[in-house]
Amino acid sequence: MKHYYIETFGCQMNVHDSEKMAGILKSEGYTAVGSAEDADILIFNTCSIRQKAEQKFFSELGRIKSLKKRRPDLKIAVAGCIAQQEGIKIIERAPHVDYVVGPQNISALKDIITSQSDSVFTDDNLAITEIELPIERRDNVRAWVNIMYGCNNFCSYCIVPYTRGRERSRASQSIINEIKDLAEKGYKEVTLLGQNVNSYKGNVDFPGLLKEINKIEEIKRIRFVTSHPKDLSDELIYAIRDLDKVCEHIHLPLQSGSSKVLALMNRKYTYADYIKKIEQLKREIPEIAITSDIIAGFPQETDEDHNDTIKALKEVEFDSIFAFKFSPRPGTKASTMDGQLPDDIKSNRLSEILELQNKITERKNNGLKGTIQEVLIEGVDEKTSNKFSGRTRTNKVVNVLFDSTIKPGDTIKVKITTARRHSLEGEIV
Ligand code: SF4
After folding, report:
1. Angle, to 10 degrees, between the axis of helix 234-242 and the axis of helix 271-284?
2. How many structural domains does the chain have?
3. Looking at residue 27, which CATH number applies to its domain?
4. Residue 400 maps to which CATH number?
5. 74 CB less than 6 Å from ligand 1?
6. Whose C-alpha lies nearest to ligand 1, atom 1?
7. Residue 116 confidence class, pLDDT cut points 50, 70, 90
8. Using a 6 Å cutoff on CB, does residue 228 contact ligand 1?
9. In degrees to the nearest 10, what's the CA dihedral of 223, 106, 331, 146?
10. In terms of residue numbers, what domain contains 403?
11. Cβ 267 under 6 angstroms from ligand 1
12. Does 420 fall in a domain?
């Protein structure tokens, strides 16, 4: 029996890619183990979206060198966006690495474990939308489903179009087949994945795809990430409003409240465009939860621009945000722009953003106390282990005490009794 260990950094796309790698390894007779020490193959699925994630990976890679010395038979593969970006340079820098596999070449993992082959797999893979890989999913209730790969937007700070290539959509029938299969296996919720799902172009457009998935009986909830504000159409807003299984939540990255900074970011919308879409979303779907991404301290961002972001947070009142300091990524336009800001300014702006958003999130969560929410039970709450954990349709985590009448996969009604910043608690009604 051979064993594998996968360490995953980064976004949902990477988490799902790791599920595919695990699927390939399992189909070749490997089983998962809990540590690199016990593995025959160790895979780092890396992220290069921010310098911090990259540094963390390289320090892990350095640490593993002594293990490879003790166990030269251990195979080490580097996958994900750093693999794509650096290619052979990873092996030159760290000769204890055996293989480098970019995100478009996950299927090469089979060659690696079944035969001695090349060590670097980073070619553009135009057929990626047609490759069906076995998937070892981490969850039994919720499943990720890729609907498209890559991105055409070239936001000036982002490395993704260079590592994951141009946009390519999967055929809608193949997506529907995968979801029907998930439904047969008992899954209740699907999250459709893509860098910019709004620009999905299969045999139907994205709202059309949602309509088709909405017909699959056993699937109770449909979510999707990520949406680009410039491609958020009226039809998509109506689909969220009208399709009963499409959840009332949208992740709509704003990045900055300053239209000048948005232009520097090449986001292709102004703050006025953005707020118009938010108003429309709130008008059509009053209960909708809106989450977002914010970058603090982009090159040339002035105090006034930063204040525009603060104003935007107050105006939109996001349910929650992911906010980070601007991190220059080699190879992107923003990394060489004039007006790079010192770290202390970026840190101060980030703190102000987070402090404000924390208050907004707490206030919004508190407003849910006493309300009845529909919660899909996902599993046991890892922190307390005497509670079930699930989510509202608006994607808020809710914990309820164990009850013998419910199990993961059930949808129940819960009265919210306690609100925290990151979760809610409630009683079954
Ligand atoms: S939309 Fe922009 S931020 Fe998102 S993946 Fe594409 S280039 Fe990167």
Report:
1. 30
2. 2
3. 3.40.50.12160
4. 2.40.50.140
5. no
6. 153
7. low
8. yes
9. -10
10. 372-428
11. no
12. yes
